[in-house]
Structures are given as structure tokens and as C-alpha cells.
Design a protein that fits this description.
The chain is of the alpha+beta class and 230 residues long. 21% of the residues lie in helices and 19% in strands. It folds into 2 domains: 97 residues, no CATH class; 86 residues, no CATH class. The strands form 3 sheets. The protein has a 4-stranded antiparallel β-sheet, with no helix packed on it. Strands 7-8-9-10 form a 4-stranded antiparallel β-sheet, with no helix packed on it. A two-stranded antiparallel sheet has the order 1-2.
Length: 230
Amino acid sequence: MKKLLLLLALISFFGVQGQYQTSTPWMEGFDVNSKSTKIKFKDIVDAGEAYFDSIDKLAKGSGYKQFKRWEAYWQDFVGSDGMVPTSTELWEAWLDVESQSNFRNPLADESNWTSLGPVDFVNRPFSSGNIGRLNVVVQDPSNSATLYAGAPSGGIWKSTDSGANWTQLIDFALPTIGVSGIAIDKNDSNTIYIATGDDDNADSPAIGIWKSTDGGNTWAQTGLNPSNSP
């Protein structure tokens, strides 16, 4: 288990967490240039807390949040001696795990995805024509070939051939309509609910929850709508 934790630590070492926050003021008194340097985790935490006690740590950009994230992450990798694992120890742990016959590379891509398109787009300065992000994709519980997709400002779309072709179901006679959530009744897949609006980037306003009882051909407003909700 300990070696597995060290392996995860090594992955983060080459990622965004950082074994030591070497460029920070509270690390100035530590020797972090040697691969075999051993530093007590508590000493780093104490130095960090002392530094932030001397400034307004709640001020924007103070670095306190990043420091606490570092502390919360690396506390799980501290050795029995209270030391933060060195880069040498992390590398040796990686080599040890990699040498095992049942080792599976955690970074290997074992997915089986195929692009459904569109792929015929024109590059533009700030966007890719014909290609937009999706908020949600839901499969019909009674028919695996039927899919519904909700777009931030492109409404709701339906495919009955596993995504090969799509049809826009409704635009509510508005310039743009976003769909952030789709729910299908498991007992009657013709009954569909959509949550309107874009919950990620506010690309389109919400007009409540809408319902269809005929597989998305027609829609009606429900009791949750702009007239009775914030």
C-alpha cells in the first residue's frame, strides 16, 4: 500500500502538485536542490503557517489556498519518520512497481472511443464553426440506440441510430435555448424532462423545467418556470 501511495505521489510530482513548493518564501530556509534531501513534513507546514501569520493570508493571491492544498495532499505520503519522500524514493518506487509482472500503466489509454463528429468545420478566430460543447448526453433506458443531447445554446437533439444522425427537437421559438439536464422516465421513455439554461458559462438563460410526453416531439412548461422561481 505504501508503495502504491509513493507511486501516486510520483505521478503528481511530474504533474501539478509539486513535491515541494520550491519558489515560495517559506521554503527559503530548506535545501530542496538535492534529490536525496530529507525534510520533515511538519517543519514545512510550520514554516508555511508562520509565513502566512505575518501577512494577510485571506487576501486574494496570497497563496494560502495553494499551500493548504499542498499540505492536504502530501500528508498522505509522509513516511513513518515524518519525512516527505525524496524524489529518489519516488523514482525507486516507480521502478519497483513497474517491474512487477501484473503492473498496469495507470497513464495508458485503454478507452475505446470513436468520434461521432462533426468533423467538417471551418476554423475561426475565436471558435470552430459547426462545433459546440455539450452539457449532457442521455441514453434512452428502453432503447440503447436512442440518445438525447443538450447543448448550452443549441437546444436538445435526438439520435435514433446510436449517434450517427441527429435531429433538433425544439427551439421554443427563441433565438437560443440552453439545456443543462435531461431526465427520462424509466417506466415510460416517451416522457422526458429538460432543465433549461446553461449551468456552466451562462451562455443562455433558464426558462424552467420543460416536459415532453411524446419522445420530444412537443413540449410543455411545468410548474417550475420563471414566473415562480428565482
